[in-house]
Amino acid sequence: MEKMWAGRFQKALDAAADDFNASIRVDQRMYRQDIAGSLAHAAMLVSTHILTEEEGLQIQTGLQAILEELDNGSLQVDAGAEDIHMFVEAELTRRLGDVGKKLHTGRSRNDQVAVDVRMYLRDEAIEVKRLLLGLIGAVLGKAREYKNAVMPGYTHLQRAQPVTFGHHLSAYCMMFMRDFDRLSDAVRRMNVCPLGSAALAGTTYPIDRAETAAALGFDTYCLNSLDGVSDRDFCVELAAALSLLMTHLSRFSEEIILWSSWEFKFIELDDAYTTGSSIMPQKKNPDMAELVRGKTGRVYGDLITLLTMLKGLPLAYNKDMQEDKEAIFDAFDTVKACVGVFTPMVSTLTALPERMRAAAGRGFINATDLADYLVGRGLPFRSAYKIVGQIVHACIAAGETLETLPLAQYKTFSPLFDETLYAAIDLDACVEKRNSAGGTGKESVAAELAAIEAFLKDNETA
Asked: Percent of the chain beyond pLDDT 70?
């Protein structure tokens, strides 16, 4: 295939250099966006009288035919093409002759690729947001199912205070809701049309940039042509949002891995989302969660690729920027795959509340409530804290828990203790008392779950 830019050159590009230069293997997935951009551009050229109506109709018909044939597979992308933009234009020219050559009037590949990438990533972000709503819904369902299951809450991976499994799961809903909002914000900033920036300095043709921006669903157009073709902030911002999403998935994966181990056994994963061992027949490995945890580093790498690619580039377009697509496409592909398997994995897991409750009964996680009991009887908190620390030490030495230590021994530490202390440190009571906003008490958790449900309803058409 002859290069569109071949007029300046006296000999063909070296075959290895041609392959190295080409991006068709990566960017051919943008053919729908490329054709949509060309249709809008052609319509604008007609409305501004740069093309005739007859020329515009021929180009429109030709592009729509190419789109239909690519969609149904009767036309295959030429692997020898430099990129998807050149392929579509060459195919249109092959069909229409000189009329096809007029399509590129008033634009450059620089603004063409910039608009294609924005449109493609806008679609990808919408898909990830849809998947996120499904994930939030799945986690919410489990949170509702196990909203009263008492388990140990942890700090430093040490048992700290009692919470409910529903409260713990709701924390991940909050993270995923922020991820959803971050993607929405990134798309809002990205939704600015670069088409019409041309190569870097605009064009001498009387184009109407507002028309093409509106036709392609953009809020407005880029106000600076240099920025329009060289900006890839949106790729970085989306990759950063996806990286944070993967951070949250990885943290959740780590807990699922721990919870499903025999050391915890707080949950049982469905067989459909685990694998076995080639040599140990007893094994049930949480491979899906481990892969999500591992693929997080891959998305981080995509973000670093984008930042590094951009950090030394002068204005405006440089060929380095061709590397943007492989990184950001991989980030979206990886996130979609991870959320796609994570959601049903969560939906099908089974919690083991009796194991959670047994773990909560050890580790003195009601010690703070014992201190609060003394505070309620007039003792300063720091004094109460010290006394309870001494009691815990005594319990460990005697092989007792706070619930089993005799009242007589309690009284050796403080005369403020009486038989009511045992009700105060009951695990269910410890949980139920924490009804401050955002706490683990039933009323607070009910408010959390209602807020998550409201978020899902508010965004169901997003």
From this structure: 97
Q: Which of 277, 383, 393, 436 is catalytic?
A: 277
CATH superfamily of 110-358: Fumarase/aspartase (Central domain) (1.20.200.10)
Summarize the confidence of residues 388-416 as an average pLDDT.
Answer: 95
Active site residue 383: no
Q: Mean pLDDT across the chain, nearest whole number?
A: 95
Query: Which one of 49, 74, 156, 278 is the catalytic residue?
Result: 156
Domain 6-105 homologous superfamily, CATH = Fumarase/aspartase (N-terminal domain) (1.10.275.10)
Residue 277 among the catalytic residues: yes
- In the chain, where does the domain assigned CATH 1.10.275.10 lie? 6-105
> Distance of CA 278 to CAs 25, 258, 268, Å?
37, 22, 21
* Cα-trace Rg, the chain: 30
- The answer as to CATH 1.10.40.30 being correct for domain 367-425 is yes
